Amino acid sequence: MYLIIAKHNKLMNTTNIKDFTTPEFIDAFTKIQKMFKEYTTTDAVGGKYENGANNFLSEKTAMIANGPWMISDFQDPTKAPAGFIDKVGAAIFPGQGVFDAPMLGFFIASKDKEHADATVTLLKYLTSKEVQLRGLEMVGTMPASTNIEIPQEVANKHPLITELIKLANGAKYKYNNYQGLWYPNTLDTLSTNYPALALNKMTPQEFAKKLTEAANKNK
Questions:
Q1: Handedness of CA 89, 81, 53, 73 (dihedral sign)
Q2: Are 57 and 143 in contact (CB under 8 A)?
Q3: Using an 8 Å Cβ cutoff, are 21 and 205 in contact?
Q4: Are 18 and 215 in contact (CB under 8 A)?
Q5: Cα(18)–Cα(216) distance, integer angstroms
Q6: What is the pLDDT of residue 4?
Q7: pLDDT at 175 (0 to 100)
């Protein structure tokens, strides 16, 4: 879905879209259909994450669209061959775009002000630049802030995540998570009809119409 890029960045951050028959969506669905047909493995349609990850880690595929949380797998001897991480590079989406969504949030449920204030203080510490940098240094966690200066020794320890941070911070466009923006029944319709689109049993136009019909069932 992130093929809808550049000048359509506003669309990718729009809540509760009801019309998927527009040129940018048709173009995106057409490209997705082509990728399934010409640029991936036969088990990609309906395959679980494990299928795609295994194909990439075993070097059967050249690319995988995933996040920084996968980097630790690249140097895990139970998941990837020795030296695999040295063969991997980072990239953002074509058109200078990057998927950018908030991490898990926190709720303060304290019943009195004293405990609520203490919780706020703790959360401020957990989200501070110091702790974010420590997370990057110790376990390779990608910082949420974009203005953290990374020491060279940390960059040397985690070159791939450092490369991704640099690319992400320099991205021209940032996309939100469509799963959090679109109507739930539209997402269900997308999942149900995705195999038909991938297997050329449904045209991009028909796929777009299905999503539009589902979205318009919402008031």
A1: negative
A2: no
A3: yes
A4: yes
A5: 6
A6: 46
A7: 80
Residue in the block written with tokens 């953290």: 148
Helix (H, G, I), strand (E, B) or coil at 137: helix
pTM of the predicted model as reported, rounded to 2 decimal places: 0.77
Divide the 219 residues of the chain into consecutive groups of 10 and give the mean pLDDT of each group: 53 86 91 93 85 92 89 91 93 83 80 95 92 90 85 91 90 82 93 94 97 95
Spatial separation of the C-alpha atoms in residues 194 and 133, rounded to whole Å:
39
- Measure Cα distances from 17 to 33, 185, 193, 209 in Å: 21, 12, 18, 13
Rounded to whole angstroms, what are the CA distances from 121 to 103, 112, 128, 143? 19, 15, 11, 19
Residue 213 is classified by DSSP as H
Please report, for residues 36, 128, 130, 143, 166, the alpha-carbon distance to residue 149 in angstroms, rounded to integers and kept in the order given: 40, 13, 10, 10, 11
What crossing angle do the helices spanning 23-38 and 204-215 adopt, rounded to 10°? 130
